[in-house]
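ok here's the first one, seq then struct tokens
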Amino acid sequence: MYDNEVDLVEIVSGGLLNKLSSPFDEVEAVRKGFPVNRIKRLESIMRWDRKAFAKFIRTTPKTLERYARDNKHLSPQVSENTLDVARLMNLGIAYFESVERWNLWLNTPHVQFNNSAPVSVLESASGRALIKRIVLGLEHGFVA
């Protein structure tokens, strides 16, 4: 079960960052790359399969498996995408108050997403920004 106090940014960064970290700390951590073994924890919390999560962070399941086998860190680009996804997951779970409700919303078609599910745009930075804008709007009383 997911505890709303768990910080997904801290989890994916291997403890290097948290949701209150400075942008400079984030830049440094992303440059070094996140530990690939932290991906499994986020997948487990979010109840996502490897293929879906790999798509969200713009890589492939085989690449993640190879990095894990070779005990490598994620590339800076994949680490940055992972950080962005973790931040968005923190926001969504905080608003919807559970992983289940957040995943339900992510997988439900909405007018703001051209009658597609928000999850369909999660792999792009622009799509994540749109999801964030919609969730922040919900917090202020706008309808999704």
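and now the second one, same deal
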Amino acid sequence: MKKLKISNYQQILTLTLVAATTITSTTHAAFAQLLRGAGDSFAQPLIERYSQEYQQETGGNFRYSSIGSGGGIRLFTNNSVDFGATTLIPTPIEINQMEDGLLMIPTGGGALAVVYHLKEVSSNVKLSREQLAKIFTGQITNWQQINSRFPNKKIQVIVCSDNCGTNFILTKYLRKITGGKIVASRNPDWGFRVFSALSQDGEIAGEVKRIDGAIGYVQTNVALKNNLSIASIENKSGNYVKPTLEETKKALANVTFQDDFSTEDIQDPENGYPLVSLIWLLVHKKYANQETLEKTKNLMTWILTKGQQLNEDLGYTKIPDDVNKKVIKAVNNEVSISPF
């Protein structure tokens, strides 16, 4: 299957963001700076909640565009936005291109729900590790191959089309459980003809809801908001679990943070729900504009303190307290005005 191109929607949104950046920079004397962020749809429900509470509490405001982790990293690198959001750790090449430096801010952890639509099935669908891998490699194509009591109906696979973190969360798990036969990628070549490929979690959710026999994957909050059926997935211990907050906490319990606040890939946790990821906000270490610098530091400090209390309301985990304190210190000490 050919690799899928960035959607027209994302192209237009990217151009709009770049244009907005130009307009903002040329009219700074007349208008106050509005912080702009862009990145992963996986983080969008949490960031939207941050935005609502932050504005209500502080009067501060920011704009966030959900265009995928890859798109967020690209716009952040190009200085087209003030901060990014990602479930992917930027590659060494990408970090090298960030002329104003990078501070990665872990913000929370969440789960990727495998969602489906089967009109004739009222019971919960359980997918083994092998079945999940075979569905997303085109080796299982009919629901009766999952369970003989399911209808004789073609499985319509719906995927993310763009350079997105949800693709990476799914494929890095499939890579682990298949012994490397599947390549972890932001833009996977699925190796078969999928039913449709869409750029946003909301679009994928809508398509799954519309198509009987469909299966796809979205951030858990998006699945719940759209009243989608969520499959139970077999974990490494052989238990079938759903992406609840409790199971997400179990899966992320043993994550170790490095000095730069990155982590080892979370590929196949022993306990809990297996399709999980951390979320990082990306900020520059140097900002050319004093107002943008102050607003960015204020926002990040708020997210790491009061904002953390909102995470579990939306099913996201909080960052451990000891790590959180180190991140706050890094924001205060390492993010500053550019001397040039």
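notes on #2: The chain has a mean pLDDT of 90. The chain has two domains: 8-110+275-337, 111-245.
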